[in-house]
């Protein structure tokens, strides 16, 4: 289940936005002047962006005046909501070209600590979401007025940065369509879930504004599209009008049918935007991305590229590497005593978990530190382990093999032992294009294991089928539960669509961690917080203590018990925990909890529907025969190893 407001504990993103280098204006070109009509559609879009930034300036100025003059609360709130809607009209290009500034303008109202900062200074949040806390749910006090005005000054400073950045832009048609489709995805995954409107009532009107910008953007290409494919042009125009009509009739976030919006309006819209791009002959970018640059829908079976999450994105896993990795995964020869394999704790029949709160430790000496997470879709996240201490599956495999309580082995020892098996040498030669006589290398072992793990992507659950146009795939209870998940329970503000983990859309460039206040034992009257420091233990940062990576909810019906410590044995218990506001809501002292402590007030029916929806996220296609029938053999001098059991002894 999910926290209801996410915050990244990782360092502030320094990465470049999509396509940034390809669309910087050279110094020899003059900038587009607002108000001057230009000939190309891309220039028209840029001109509109300048105008929208100016409108945002005006909206913020009006909000500043309302606060400075102590106007009635109703007027101040109206001015605030108007400023947020004005931001949404600029969001498409602001997020695309200036993501760091966009984060300052509209990032979560929670502090951050940069992991390289030895002084552990908390960077206080700023921007529109901080301003929201002064207007909703309760208004600020007169004594807080200077703080509100200070935040408005921060917003105006960030706006100035956006203006300066806009003067340097010269986007191509490819950039425009890329940004447009990503904005549709942003609305689908973050906007309608209330990710950036946790307290104010503006999620639906803001979605209308954001998609209105996409509509205005594509209007610049409408004459060309009409000339090439008039039916598609008419269909796209009709879809835009239908989207706005639906949003206009559903202004209240509490009653908004998010599932219907996604399946009947937003998903077809993203597909038609891509069709229009193809019809116009505008190429998609070729760069490797988590969400493919040519993905027409978030819910396509192959929308995501697991290679993008790897350290080396230029070499894709080959079938021989995957097959070799599968053999190694089930082979106890990698462990220190030759009796334990990766599959000992990650069993394919249990969605690659083991059904234990904490797995049995090496040689049966107690238990390991944390619950065994599923490996299904583990390739589609930016960090590994509950504490996110490594980034790549290759490093995760190496760490597990070396861990004295898990496999208590050594990659170097394993590579030497595997080199003594002619069958394994042949398999490694086929996988890595080497000679069969060549010794097995440690890097090859890691690469093969990671290749197998990247093959465990499963995105064809009943929910996915429903989103792809199979209405019978999702029952009535699960449909109601989807709306609870996306709406009242706010699960989707941390377990983001469509991966249902903490990897933030639409760029999927970072995976978030949360402080939930998980108790040591399941109880509605817990006595103690679980002592595991989580991310804070890995980084040494106090503010990250008890933070854990937001895991995937795909196949969650099969992966009990839950949480990093396996404290909760049922989904119903987990839902009750969130319904009460996490650990702090249950009375524990959790000063850095990122999960809001207020209660959700879910009804018994809503909880049952939510469980039904979570069951609809199950997809274990093709996993029934994951375990190899036999393992590669060793020569006579190592005959004792030939009796080893695939999957290990315990």
UniProtKB/TrEMBL annotation:
Main location: other
Entry's localization field: Cell envelope
Pfam family, one: CCP_MauG
Protein name: C-type cytochrome
Keywords: Heme, Iron, Metal-binding, Oxidoreductase, Signal
PROSITE patterns, per the entry: CYTC, PROKAR_LIPOPROTEIN
Residues in Cytochrome c domain copies: 320-457, 476-618
Lineage per the UniProt record: Bacteria, Pseudomonadati, Bacteroidota, Cytophagia, Cytophagales
UniProt xrefs under InterPro entries: Cyt_c-like_dom (IPR009056), Cyt_c-like_dom_sf (IPR036909), Cytochrome_c_Peroxidase/MauG (IPR051395), Di-haem_cyt_c_peroxidsae (IPR004852), Imelysin_sf (IPR038352)
GO MF terms held by the record: cytochrome-c peroxidase activity; electron transfer activity; heme binding; metal ion binding
Signal sequence bounds: none
GO cellular component, as recorded: cell envelope
């Amino acid at each position: 289940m999910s926290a209801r407001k996410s915050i990244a504990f990782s360092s502030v993103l320094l990465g470049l936005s999509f396509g940034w280098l390809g669309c910087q204006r050279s110094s020899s070109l003059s900038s587009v002047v607002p108000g001057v009509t230009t000939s190309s559609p891309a220039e028209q879009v840029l001109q509109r962006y300048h105008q929208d930034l100016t409108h945002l300036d005006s909206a913020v100025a009006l909000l500043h005046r309302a606060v400075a003059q102590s106007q009635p609360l109703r007027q101040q709130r109206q001015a605030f909501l108007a400023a947020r809607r004005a931001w949404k009209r600029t969001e498409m290009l602001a997020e695309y070209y200036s993501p760091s500034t966009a984060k300052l303008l509209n990032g979560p109202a929670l502090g951050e600590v940069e992991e390289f900062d030895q002084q552990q200074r908390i960077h206080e949040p700023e921007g529109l979401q901080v301003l929201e806390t002064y207007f909703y749910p309760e208004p600020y006090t007169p004594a807080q007025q200077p703080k509100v005005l200070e935040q408005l000054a921060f917003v105006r400073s960030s706006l100035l940065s956006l203006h300066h950045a806009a003067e340097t832009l010269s986007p191509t048609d490819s950039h425009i369509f890329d940004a447009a489709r990503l904005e549709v995805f942003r609305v689908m995954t973050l906007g309608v879930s209330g990710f950036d409107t946790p307290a104010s009532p503006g999620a639906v009107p803001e979605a209308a504004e954001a998609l209105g910008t996409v509509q205005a953007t594509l209007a610049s290409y409408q004459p060309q599209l009409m000339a090439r494919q008039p039916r598609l042009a008419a269909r796209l125009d009709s879809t835009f009008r239908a989207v706005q009509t639906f949003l206009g009739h559903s202004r209240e976030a509490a009653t908004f049918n998010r599932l219907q919006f996604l399946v009947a309006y937003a998903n077809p819209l993203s597909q038609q935007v891509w069709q229009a791009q193809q019809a116009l002959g505008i190429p998609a970018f070729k760069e490797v991305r988590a969400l493919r640059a040519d993905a027409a829908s978030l819910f396509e079976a192959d929308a995501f590229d697991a290679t993008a999450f790897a350290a080396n994105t230029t070499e894709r896993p080959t079938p021989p590497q995957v097959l070799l990795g599968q053999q190694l995964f089930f082979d106890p020869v990698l462990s220190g005593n030759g009796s334990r394999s990766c599959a000992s704790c990650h069993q394919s029949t249990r969605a690659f978990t083991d059904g234990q709160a904490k797995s049995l430790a090496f040689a049966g000496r107690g238990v390991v530190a944390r619950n065994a997470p599923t490996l299904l879709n583990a390739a589609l996240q930016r960090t590994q382990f509950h504490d996110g201490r490594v980034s790549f599956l290759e490093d995760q495999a190496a760490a597990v093999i070396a861990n004295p309580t898990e496999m208590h082995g050594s990659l170097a020892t394993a590579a030497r032992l595997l080199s003594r098996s002619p069958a394994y040498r042949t398999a490694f030669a086929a996988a890595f294009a080497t000679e069969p006589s060549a010794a097995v290398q440690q890097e090859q072992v890691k690469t093969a294991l990671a290749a197998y793990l990247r093959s465990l992507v499963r995105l064809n659950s009943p929910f996915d089928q429903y989103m792809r146009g199979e209405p019978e795939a999702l029952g009535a209870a699960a449909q109601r539960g989807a709306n609870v998940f996306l709406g009242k329970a706010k699960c989707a503000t941390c377990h983001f669509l469509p991966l249902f983990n903490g990897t933030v859309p639409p760029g999927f460039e970072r995976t978030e961690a949360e402080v939930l206040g998980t108790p040591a034992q399941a109880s509605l009257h817990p006595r103690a917080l679980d002592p595991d420091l989580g991310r804070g233990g890995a980084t040494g940062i106090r503010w990250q203590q008890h933070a854990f990576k937001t895991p995937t909810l795909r196949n969650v019906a099969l992966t009990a018990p839950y949480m990093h410590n396996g404290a909760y044995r049922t989904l119903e218990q987990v839902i009750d925990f969130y319904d009460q506001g996490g650990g702090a809501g249950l009375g524990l002292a959790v000063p850095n909890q990122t999960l809001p402590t207020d209660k959700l007030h879910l009804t018994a029916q809503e909880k049952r529907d939510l469980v039904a929806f979570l069951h609809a996220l199950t997809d274990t296609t093709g996993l029934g025969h994951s375990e190899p029938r036999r393992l590669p053999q060793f020569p006579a001098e190592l005959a004792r190893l030939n009796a080893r059991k695939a999957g290990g002894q315990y």
